[in-house]
C-alpha cells in the first residue's frame, strides 16, 4: 500500500532563491485515493481500512511537497497525459482534513498550486501503484514569509517583562529586610500585611514554599497525594505522546496498527482513564477539608459562602492558565518552523484568539470543543463545574442532615444514570474508543472524544465517588477506625491495585466487534467500567491514608515527591507546548523505536517540569500569595469559609494548608 507519509526536503525547498527565481514554496497536502474496483491494490486498501477501530484509513495519505520539484516533474508531460492525471470530483465520505476556514491564505494557495500538485501526486501514484487521487492543500510555507508581530504578541512580552520585574524587585526587597541573613527569614511571615504583599513575588520565599513540608497530622497523612499527582502527570504525558505519534510523520504506522491487535494495548488505549485520578483526588480533598471546616464551625455553614468559594477558586486557577493561553495565542507559532508547524501551531493560535473566552469561563469542554485552545484544559472546565455542584451538595447535607444519605444517594445515582442515558441515546459504544484515525486529527472531530470523554456529565461520577471517599474517611476518623488493622480491607486494597488496570482489558471486545447501537447493555457497561476506576481509587486512597502497606506509603512519602507534586499543575498546562516542539517540527517521517520513545517521554516530562518550575515561581506561587493576602481581610469577616486552595483540582500544588494564616506555617 502507498505510504501514509512522504515528505520532500523542507529546508532545501525554502532556501533563499536567486534574485531572478521565484520564491520557494512547500505545501502540506491531504491525498484521498479515488476508488478503483478494477485494482486489486485498491480492494486491499479498502478491506484493510474497513477495520477503522484498529487501523488507519489508508485511503487518506499525507504528503509534504516542494512546488519546484513538482513543476519540474510534470513540465514534460503532454496535454493528454495531464488530462489523464486530472481527477474529476468524486464523493468523499471520510475525514481527510481539518475544517475549512481555519487557516488564512489557503484559498489563494489552492488557486495557485492545486492543479500542479494534484497532477504531480497522481503521476507518482499512477506510475507506482496504478491509482489516482484527489489532492487538497492543508498549508503552505514560502521562503519569503516573514514573522509578523502584532499588538497581542507585544502584550505577552509586556506581561512577561512585568512579571520578571516584580520577581526581581520583590526578591531584592525580601533580601534587604533579612537583617540576620538567615534562611529562616524566608520561611516566616513578616510583621505586617503590607510587607507580606511586597514579598509575594520573592523567589527565595516562594522556593521555600515549593520545597518545604507541612508537619501537621492531616497533611502528613495526605502527603502521598503529591506522589500520586506526579505519577499521574507522567502517565498523562506518556498517553499524549502516543497520540502525537499518530499525528506526526512516522515510518511506524504498521507498528501502531499491530499494537492495536494486542489485548494488552487496552491498558494503553484506556489510559485516558488516568485523568480520573485527578478527579477522585480533588473530590476527596474537598470532602475532607469541608468536614474539617464544619467541625470547627460546629455545623454553621451558609449557602452564601458558595459564590465566594467559586470566586476564590477561580482566582487561584486562572492566572497561570491565562498566561499559557496567551503564550499559545502569540509566540508559539513564531518559535519554530516545519512542514507541519502551520497546521499544528497556527491552528492553536487561531483557536486561542477565537475561543479564549470559553477557557476563562471554564466551559471549554462544551463550547467549541472541536476548536480547542489548550486542548487538555477540557479537564479544568469539567472539574470546575463539578466542584461547584459538589460544594452545593456538601452545604446542603450539612443544612439538612436528616436527608444526608438520600441526597448523596441521589447524586451518586445521577452520576451513573445520566451518563448512561447519553451513551444510549447518542448511539455510542460500550467504551471510549481511541482510534488511530481519529488521533490523526487530534480527536477534534471524534464523536467518542466529544461525547464520551470530555463532557462534565460523563466525568461526574468519579468526582462524586471521591467526595464520598472523603466523607467515609471523616466518618472513620470520628469512630477511631483504622483500616490498616482490617485484614479483609488489606486484601481488598492489594487486589484493587491489580484489578484496576486489568479491568480495562475487556474493552477489547468493542474494538473487534461492531455491536448494534443503541444498546442498553453497552451503556450500562460503559458507565460501570468508567466509575469502577473511581471506586477502586477510593479504596486505594483510604488504604494509603491509613498505611495499609507501610513500604508503599514510605515510598510515596519520599521528600522529592513534594515539589514534583506541586509542579504538576504547571506541567499539566505546558506539556503539550513541549511536545509540539518534539513532534510538529520534524522535517521527515521518523522511526520511533521503543528506546527512542521512552527517551522522548522522559525528556518531555523533564522539560515540562522545568517550564512548570518557571511558571510556579513567576506566576503561580506569587499570585497565590497575593490572593491569600488580598482575600484575607474578607476571609476573616466570613465565618463560613472553606479555603478553596485546599480543595483545588488534582493538578494543583497544595494539599490542605495555604500558609497565609497569621500563625507560622509551612506549605
Automatic annotation (TrEMBL):
Keywords assigned: Membrane, Transmembrane, Transmembrane helix
Transmembrane segments: 154-173, 227-247, 274-294, 314-333, 377-398, 405-425, 452-476, 488-512, 532-552, 564-583, 595-619
One GO MF term: acyltransferase activity, transferring groups other than amino-acyl groups
Residues covered by the Acyltransferase domain: 224-615
InterPro entries (UniProt xref): Acyl_transf_3_dom (IPR002656), O2_lipid_transport_reg (IPR052728)
Keyword Lyase found: no
Protein name, entry field: Acyltransferase 3 domain-containing protein
Lineage of origin: Eukaryota, Metazoa, Ecdysozoa, Arthropoda, Hexapoda
Amino acid at each position: 500500500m502507498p505510504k501514509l507519509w512522504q515528505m520532500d526536503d523542507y529546508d532545501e525547498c525554502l532556501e533563499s532563491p536567486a534574485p531572478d527565481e521565484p520564491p520557494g514554496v512547500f505545501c502540506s497536502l491531504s491525498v484521498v485515493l479515488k476508488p478503483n474496483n478494477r485494482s486489486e491494490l485498491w480492494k486491499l486498501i479498502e478491506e484493510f481500512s474497513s477495520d477503522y477501530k484498529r487501523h488507519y484509513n489508508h485511503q487518506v495519505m499525507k504528503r509534504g511537497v516542494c512546488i519546484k520539484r513538482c513543476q519540474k516533474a510534470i513540465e514534460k508531460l503532454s496535454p493528454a497525459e495531464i488530462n489523464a492525471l486530472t481527477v474529476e470530483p468524486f464523493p468523499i465520505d471520510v475525514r481527510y482534513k481539518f475544517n475549512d476556514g481555519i487557516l488564512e491564505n489557503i484559498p489563494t494557495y489552492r488557486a495557485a498550486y492545486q492543479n500542479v500538485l494534484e497532477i504531480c501526486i497522481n503521476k507518482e501514484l499512477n506510475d507506482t501503484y496504478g491509482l489516482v487521487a484527489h489532492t487538497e492543500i492543508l498549508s503552505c510555507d514560502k521562503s519569503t514569509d516573514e514573522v509578523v508581530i502584532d499588538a497581542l504578541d507585544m502584550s505577552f512580552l509586556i506581561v512577561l517583562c512585568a512579571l520578571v520585574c516584580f520577581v526581581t524587585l520583590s526578591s531584592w526587597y525580601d533580601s534587604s529586610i533579612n537583617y540576620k541573613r538567615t534562611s529562616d527569614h524566608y520561611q516566616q511571615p513578616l510583621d505586617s500585611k503590607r510587607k507580606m504583599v511586597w514579598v509575594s513575588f520573592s523567589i527565595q520565599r516562594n522556593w521555600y514554599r515549593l520545597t518545604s513540608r507541612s508537619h501537621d497530622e492531616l497533611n502528613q497523612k495526605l502527603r502521598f497525594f503529591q506522589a500520586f499527582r506526579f505519577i499521574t502527570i507522567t502517565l498523562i504525558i506518556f498517553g499524549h505522546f502516543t497520540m502525537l505519534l499518530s499525528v506526526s510523520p512516522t515510518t511506524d504506522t504498521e507498528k501502531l496498527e499491530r499494537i492495536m491487535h494486542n489485548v494488552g494495548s487496552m491498558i494503553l488505549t484506556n489510559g485516558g482513564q488516568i485523568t480520573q485520578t485527578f478527579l477522585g483526588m480533588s473530590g476527596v480533598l474537598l470532602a475532607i477539608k469541608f468536614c474539617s471546616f464544619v467541625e470547627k464551625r460546629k455545623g454553621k455553614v451558609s449557602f452564601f459562602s458558595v459564590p465566594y468559594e467559586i470566586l476564590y477558586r477561580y482566582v487561584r486557577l486562572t492566572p497561570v492558565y491565562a498566561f499559557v493561553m496567551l503564550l499559545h495565542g502569540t509566540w508559539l507559532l513564531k518559535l519554530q518552523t516545519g512542514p507541519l508547524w502551520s497546521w499544528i501551531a497556527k491552528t492553536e493560535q487561531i483557536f486561542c484568539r477565537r475561543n479564549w473566552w470559553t477557557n476563562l469561563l471554564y466551559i471549554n469542554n462544551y463550547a467549541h470543543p472541536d476548536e480547542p485552545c489548550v486542548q487538555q484544559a477540557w479537564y479544568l472546565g469539567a472539574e470546575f463545574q463539578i466542584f461547584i455542584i459538589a460544594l452545593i451538595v456538601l452545604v446542603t447535607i450539612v443544612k439538612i442532615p436528616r436527608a444526608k444519605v438520600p441526597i448523596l444517594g441521589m447524586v451518586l445515582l445521577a452520576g451513573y444514570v445520566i451518563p448512561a442515558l447519553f451513551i444510549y441515546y447518542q448511539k455510542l459504544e460500550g467504551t471510549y474508543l481511541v482510534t488511530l484515525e481519529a488521533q490523526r486529527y487530534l480527536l477534534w472531530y471524534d464523536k467518542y472524544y466529544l461525547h464520551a470523554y470530555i463532557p462534565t456529565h460523563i466525568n461526574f461520577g468519579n468526582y462524586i465517588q471521591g467526595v464520598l471517599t472523603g466523607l467515609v474517611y471523616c466518618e472513620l476518623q470520628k469512630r477511631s477506625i483504622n483500616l490498616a488493622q482490617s485484614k479483609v480491607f488489606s486484601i481488598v486494597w492489594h487486589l484493587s491495585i491489580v484489578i484496576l488496570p486489568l479491568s480495562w482489558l475487556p474493552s477489547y471486545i468493542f474494538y473487534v466487534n461492531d455491536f448494534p447501537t443503541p444498546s442498553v447493555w453497552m451503556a450500562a457497561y460503559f458507565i460501570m467500567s468508567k466509575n469502577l476506576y473511581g471506586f477502586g481509587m477510593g479504596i486505594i486512597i483510604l488504604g494509603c491514608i491509613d498505611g495499609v502497606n507501610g513500604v508503599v506509603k514510605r515510598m510515596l512519602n519520599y521528600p522529592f515527591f513534594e515539589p514534583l507534586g506541586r509542579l504538576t499543575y504547571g506541567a499539566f498546562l505546558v506539556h503539550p507546548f513541549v511536545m509540539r516542539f518534539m513532534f510538529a517540527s520534524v522535517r521527515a517521517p521518523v522511526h520511533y523505536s521503543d528506546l527512542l520513545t521512552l527517551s522522548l517521554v522522559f525528556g518531555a516530562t523533564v522539560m515540562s517540569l522545568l517550564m512548570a518550575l518557571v511558571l510556579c515561581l513567576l506566576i503561580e506561587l506569587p499570585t497565590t500569595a497575593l490572593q491569600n493576602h488580598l482575600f484575607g481581610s474578607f476571609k476573616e469577616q466570613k465565618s463560613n469559609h472553606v479555603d478553596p486552595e485546599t480543595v483545588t483540582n488534582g493538578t494543583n500544588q497544595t494539599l490542605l494548608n495555604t500558609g497565609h494564616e497569621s500563625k507560622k506555617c509551612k506549605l
